[in-house]
Design goal:
Blueprint: E1 3-4, H1 11-23, H2 31-61, H3 66-91, H4 93-108, E2 111-112, H5 114-152, H6 178-223, H7 235-290, H8 296-336, H9 346-362, H10 378-402
Antiparallel strand pairs: 1-2
Length: about 400
């Protein structure tokens, strides 16, 4: 029985790919989709540029208000990180397209037996919960940014209307239709910044999960390496078939290692920016929650952003740690199978040699690095948390001394 896994069956893949399409960095199958992708890219660049301008202008015009400056720095950091990820991935567009095509062909649109399908179903189930959870937090945070000025303006005069973000232009923005137009533009800019902030890390986490489970599928195939129907009939023929199967497993192992190296080459700088910026973002959002006297809706917004940042770093580092563990377990799996019972003939020695090389290579696990400086693992999340707390303590002491 052969079961084909299609991308449409997986909600996590569908949602993640949708975010990438909204950012403008996805595959185009025809000329119409190509034109749409370039329009989306242009739109994303415009919205990111507008976000940078609005927040930098707000910071420059409110330098005497430390709370507003820190609020502006928090917002502009989100925009800068999203813009950096977008630019880095756009500059490596050809590599990224090849990676996606390989993933679709070999991971998502491939043939699996029933037991392998169970493993993939487990992968989909875990990541679907993660992506839906992260998606809900993102939408809740964006909704609070929109609701805050509407709640604040309830019952006030038209001249006292406020926008989600302060806009320093020489126009009567509280008067219709300037107010409505500016409000809609800021909402669109906010949504695109949110997409760019989360989509690249989410897609990499998706890749890590599927790559880790490809290593788990390889382990399943290695465990069944010696279970052949001809085992009790012809020992020579049985060993030959085992040798052929092992060669396929070795080629699959090599392909997965090369695939991981390609992923690391594309995403390494993005991961570095993600790690360096997230500690600062958590620090600034915690400061807005605990130290700034603001409205309830804005406080809820920054609570969601803080919680979302915690979820994001845990999700990402967990996927990286899972990749390390599953790639290392390949060596333990091949060592535990019954290769010691093989005869010491030419093919038996060749099998032992291939197994030894595979074990040695698996002892060096696959991982994703942050700019080539250090591998990402679950331990990095604790480092990010402790660094954020240190930044928060330092910032709190500094602002209290200034007051």
């Amino acid at each position: 029985m052969i079961i084909i896994l299609t991308m449409g069956d997986d909600i996590s893949i569908t949602l993640t790919c949708l975010l990438m399409k909204v950012a403008g960095l996805w595959l185009a199958s025809n000329a119409a989709e190509q034109r749409l992708r370039w329009l989306t890219l242009t739109y994303t660049v415009g919205m990111l540029s507008l976000g940078l301008y609005v927040n930098f202008a707000d910071i420059c015009n409110t330098l005497d208000d430390i709370s507003n400056v820190l609020y502006g720095i928090c917002n502009v950091t989100f925009v800068i990180v999203g813009s950096f990820k977008f630019v880095v991935l756009f500059l490596q567009k050809a590599k990224f397209v090849n990676l996606v095509q390989y993933t679709e062909c070999n991971f998502w649109h491939s043939n699996y037996d029933p037991q392998e399908k169970i493993l993939l179903a487990e992968c989909r189930r875990i990541f679907t919960f993660i992506i839906v959870f992260a998606y809900c937090i993102l939408n809740s945070s964006l909704a609070n940014y929109i609701l805050t000025p509407l709640i604040m303006d309830y019952g006030k005069n038209q001249s006292e209307r406020s926008l989600p973000f302060n806009t320093w232009v020489d126009l009567p923005l509280t008067v219709s239709p300037y107010y409505e137009i500016t409000f809609i533009i800021q909402i669109l800019c906010l949504a695109q910044v949110g997409v760019c902030h989360i989509c690249f890390d989410t897609f990499l986490s998706l890749i890590n999960f599927h790559l880790a489970y490809q290593f788990r599928i390889l382990q399943y195939r290695l465990k069944n390496l010696w279970e052949c129907s001809d085992k009790d009939r012809d020992l020579t023929d049985y060993i030959n078939k085992c040798h052929v199967t092992l060669k396929k497993c070795v080629r699959q192992h090599q392909a997965l290692i090369q695939y991981c190296e390609k992923v690391n080459d594309i995403y390494s700088l993005n991961v570095l920016a993600f790690v360096l910026a997230l500690s600062l973002l958590i620090c600034l959002t915690m400061y807005q929650v605990l130290m700034v006297d603001t409205t309830l809706t804005m406080r809820v917004t920054f609570i969601l952003l803080t919680f979302g940042s915690f979820v994001e770093i845990v999700m990402f580092t967990y996927s990286c740690d899972l990749l390390i563990q599953e790639s290392r377990n390949v060596g333990l799996t091949i060592y535990s199978v019954g290769w010691t019972n093989l005869p010491m003939n030419k093919i038996g020695k060749s099998l032992r040699s291939s197994i030894s090389i595979m074990i040695l290579r698996a002892n060096q696990p696959c991982y994703i690095t942050a700019g080539g400086f250090f591998p990402m693992s679950l331990e990095i999340s604790t480092t990010v948390f402790s660094t954020a707390i240190s930044y928060f303590t330092l910032l709190t002491n500094s602002t209290q001394e200034d007051e």
